[in-house]
Design brief:
This protein has 183 residues and is mainly alpha-helical. It is built from seven helices and no strands.
Length: 183
């Protein structure tokens, strides 16, 4: 009889520990499911940005800016072929060239639309609402090329508005420069 009572106590203790272990496993599983759900929501939100980019005025603005550069490609090539006294002189002439291209309200509107979109996507990632890899894989090439092409315009805005943070999130997220691009 003592053996049965001893085994019953062991069985009760085992049953209690098994219940505790089951609760911990269920809690860990729930946490993993929550993390996976958050990740899939971030990916979905990121893909929403991709869809918006392709089907909105952002795509039209980007295409207009690309066309502007294509229309002026020969002038840009000629400009780059010229000998320049220094890198600083080259940069100054490039700045003037880009600023002459961006002096119309329509071009400025297209730059605002495009750069604001890229900055919103960067903020979405910064706030952990969007997936970094998805956003970067879809937008990094376009954002980099447009920003690198039109950076004199951004620098002019920063100077004009006395605000060094104009499109800074876009610059830091997609370009990640070693130094201030405006100097």
């Amino acid at each position: 009889m003592n053996v049965l009572i001893a085994n019953k106590n062991i069985a009760d203790a085992f049953k209690s520990w098994l219940g505790v272990i089951t609760i911990f496993i269920a809690g860990a599983y729930s946490i993993l499911e929550y993390i996976d759900h958050k990740s899939s929501v971030r990916v979905e939100r990121s893909l929403g940005y991709v869809e918006h980019y392709r089907d909105s005025n952002t795509a039209e603005a980007k295409l207009a800016l690309n066309q502007l550069l294509a229309n002026n490609q020969e002038d840009l090539i000629e400009f780059l072929k010229k000998s320049h006294s220094s890198t600083k002189a080259l940069n100054e002439e490039y700045k003037q060239f880009i600023l002459s291209l961006t002096n119309t309200p329509n071009v400025q509107k297209n730059l605002e639309i495009t750069f604001s979109f890229f900055e919103e996507a960067a903020i979405c990632v910064e706030r952990e609402l969007c997936d970094r890899e998805v956003i970067q894989s879809f937008f990094i090439n376009d954002a980099k090329s447009l920003f690198n092409s039109f950076y004199p315009y951004v620098c002019q805005l920063r100077k004009q508005w006395e605000n060094n943070t104009v499109y800074l999130k876009l610059e830091n997220f997609y370009i990640n420069p070693d130094k201030d691009i405006c100097q």
